[in-house]
Design brief:
The chain is α/β, with parallel strands linked by helices. Helix content is 32%, strand content 19%. It is built from 9 helices and 9 strands. Strand 8 and strand 9 (239-244) form a beta hairpin.
């Protein structure tokens, strides 16, 4: 995942409020955090047997991608992540808890178009994942800019359509990955937090994350992606590093 920042989209008052809320979040070095990573085609082949011998205890692996601007350069990189099946199986064999995520490229100039696009991306993800198994982590929706022709109402509709369809077909409520600037495009809604969707928040290289939607309606973050330049034995180059806040309870799929 590579969150965009486009902070110009956030009103100054909202940034101030979010900064205050961030101060109440646990610090990076807090005790009890379980360490994890998320990976995609960017990491290519991973030596999961080596990863399994490190402090890493969970991994989110990209299953699919929507149809967005960074796919147009290399169209075959859209849709199914070609490393997903290998990553999922080998990470589990290495003893890690594993979940699948979908990188959305949300668009829709009308409510009908937004719903159509969300259903298409949900179906793409469902077709790749197939089913969620007992020891899996909940599936995740990666909600980040750019959003094409979506006002806050249509973006909320897009997210709701995707999550509802995935929950219906895979029989488990997804989690939502986002960052403060991207979530501001929804109007900084708390509706998904109120409805019990756990938050996976991205905020890099800070002591405490900036948590959107009024500290996710007071529930705060479940996973914090705290850097995109982490290093882990068994992976060439950089990898996203994450911390799980309070154990796997909220993330258990079954």
């Amino acid at each position: 995942m590579r969150p965009r920042t486009f902070t110009q989209a956030i009103p100054i008052a909202l940034l101030t409020m979010l900064s205050v809320l961030a101060c109440s979040a646990p610090a990076l070095g807090g005790k009890g955090h379980i360490k994890g990573i998320d990976v995609s085609r960017f990491q290519e082949r991973i030596a999961w047997n080596k990863v399994g011998k490190t402090e890493i205890r969970f991994a989110y692996v990209q299953a699919s991608r929507g149809d967005g601007k960074d796919c147009t350069v290399v169209p075959e990189e859209c849709g199914r992540d070609r490393y997903y099946s290998r990553n999922y199986a080998n990470a589990k064999d290495a003893g890690l808890r594993v979940g699948a995520y979908h990188r959305a490229f949300a668009k829709g100039g009308t409510r009908g178009k937004a719903k159509e696009d969300a259903r298409a991306e949900a179906n793409r993800f469902i077709a790749v994942v197939g089913k969620v198994r007992r020891d899996d982590l909940r599936p995740a929706l990666d909600v980040e800019a750019p959003f094409e022709r979506l006002d806050p109402n249509r973006l909320r509709l897009w997210i709701r359509t995707w999550t509802n369809r995935v929950e219906k077909k895979l029989r488990v409520k997804p989690i939502i990955y986002t960052n403060a600037s991207s979530w501001s495009a929804t109007g900084d809604t708390t509706s998904f937090a109120d409805d019990g969707y756990p938050l996976w928040v991205a905020n890099f290289d800070v002591k405490k994350p900036l948590v959107p939607a009024s500290n996710w309606a007071g529930k705060s973050w479940t996973i914090w992606q705290y850097t995109s330049t982490g290093r882990v034995r068994g992976i060439d180059g950089n990898v996203d590093r994450n911390r799980l806040r309070k154990g796997f309870g909220k993330l258990n799929a079954r």
